[in-house]
Amino acid sequence: MRLAPADWHSCATAVHADGKREILGLEVTSAEDGARWLAFFRGLATRRLTGAVLITSDAQAGLVVAIAATLPGASWQRCRTHYLLRSNRHANVRSSDE
Length: 98
Known about the structure:
The chain is 33% helix and 26% strand. The protein is an alpha+beta fold. The strands form 2 sheets. The protein has a two-stranded antiparallel ribbon. A two-stranded parallel ribbon has the order 3-4. The longest helix has 13 residues, at 34-46. The model has no long low-confidence stretch (mean pLDDT 81).
């Protein structure tokens, strides 16, 4: 599959108590909004995803709301990598000459 520059991809993975990793869902879409996130997580719930304890993701619009609506009882944590990348965009970076 060839992705267009404006396409977004989402991948839900699980890490089980024994350390086993599993891909739960994969989606390519042209929008990254709350309605799309809600549909993505509803799709996981329809396939009987249960027992989610912790969801780690970036903080895109509607994502946290969609998690709460479809995976009750699961906690949410912002991904540190995404947080640092976004923080560095706003940091006052000095020139290496100084």
